[in-house]
Amino acid sequence: MFKTKIFHYLFLITLIISCNTKPQIETEDKADNSDSKQITQEQIDHLGITDVNHLSSASKRALKWPTDLGNDWFIEFSGLKPLKGDLAYEEGVVRRDPSAMIKENGKYYVWYSKSTGPCQGFGGDVENDKVFPWDRCDIWYATSEDGETWKEEGLAVARGEKGEYDDRSVFTVEIMKHENKYYLCYQAVKSPYTVRVKNQIGLAWSDSPDGPWTKSKEPILSPADNGIWKGEAQNRFAVEKKGDFDSHKVHDPCIIPYNGKFHLYYKGEQMGEQITFGGRQIRHGVAIADNPLGPYVKSPYNPISNSGHEICVWPYNGGIASLITTDGPEKNTIQWSPDGLNFEIMSVLKSVDAHAIGLNRTADNEKDPTEILRWGLSHVYNSWNYQSIMKFSSERKTEHRAPGE
After folding, report:
1. pTM value?
2. Calpha distance 248→245 (Å, rounded)
3. pLDDT tens-digit profile of 107-133?
4. Dihedrals φ, ψ of 361, to 5°?
């Protein structure tokens, strides 16, 4: 009797499983048929769909792409060209992270991070050694009449006095001109430069691109204070709570005047940063102020990008465009937002040769979505210890032809 009950019980389970399996297959087929009813002949021709009654996951994703996007945003980068004059590569010297270029007094101006000597990483004496190439930097500037031959003009913004929030390094600078005043925003680190140190963002302003510059006494932006480290060891991956996307560092600032306010775009690094299916867990955010000097309030919509590394943004068509590179599932894309907050992918690029891009702010950015990317500045790793600034260029790519075609 007991064996009979067990048999009936197992038979019932098998029947239930088999009954539940069939509707799932039928539902999937119905979904295919449902999707196929909405497909036009134009979409079939454009996407090369073989059978509308059997749509792969790839075809279903493709059917959601905008049909009117075109290739206005698609470009190809054409390599880097060494600069001449004082910004040519110099052994033993780091020049990197160029700002955007502006043109004043008939000359291009650019600001950048500068340091000297090799770095030892976190395995050395972090109090006295140099940890990274961008460690122990000051902000310098240079001018050029043609964008290729440059004259180094000297120091613009120096590190702070010992004990101040920027006493270790000031670097990764960006320029903004507004109402005949000049503003430099930049990253700052306080000594000692440990694995768990929290980078902040500082600001300096002047009535002239040649200075002198007045520095903010306090940072204008800091990491979120809601992550919790695990233990006392200098391990940035050990956390009890990761916190917001920018709980560890705020990097690569760029201020854009927009709709009567000032949008400070920045890169966020999270405590316990992980490697995901798109690479490093790096995202972008924005903080907004009514005045260039702040206070800057982080947007509740942050993060506004789930990918990217250095910030590269410009106004276009009433909104903000952004080049997203290096990290995350949406890397190597150009995106656009109608409100500076909600970005959509406009093109996916083959590759991006330029890094830490310094845009040419003299370009007519309303002429074409990517006009501002026709040429500008980038840095290149000549070695791990030393970097130099080079010139990049790009062009619109609207068709592909074989040689002789």
Report:
1. 0.90
2. 8
3. 999 999 999 999 999 988 999 999 999
4. -70, -5
Query: Could you identify the residue written with the tokens 């590759």?
Result: 351
Note every long-range contact of 69-74, with CB atoms under 8 Å and residues 24 or more positions apart, other chains counting: 69/346, 71/347, 71/396, 71/397, 71/398, 72/346, 72/368, 72/369, 72/370, 72/396, 73/334, 73/336, 73/346, 73/347, 73/369, 73/370, 74/347, 74/349, 74/396, 74/397, 74/398
Residue 377 sits at the vertex; the CA angle it makes with 376 and 381, to the nearest 5 degrees, is 150
Band of residue 34 on the pLDDT scale cut at 50, 70, 90 = low
How far is residue 166's CA from residue 189's CA, in Å, rounded to a whole number?
5
Tell me whether the omega of the peptide bond preceding residue 369 falls within 30 degrees of 0, making it cis. Answer: no
Place of tokens 């000594």: 191
Closest CA to 283 of 239, 211, 331: 331
For 249-307, give the DSSP string: EEEEEEEEEETTEEEEEEEEE-TT--EETTEE-EEEEEEEESSTT---EE-TT--SBSS
CA pair distance 25, 244, nearest whole angstrom: 41
Is residue 1 pLDDT above 70, yes or no?
A: no
Contact criterion met (CB below 8 Å) for 120 and 129? yes
- Sign, CA dihedral 383-387-393-396, equals positive
C-alpha 136/C-alpha 279 separation (Å) is 28
Angle at 173 between CA 339 and CA 124, to 5 degrees: 125
DSSP label of 382: S
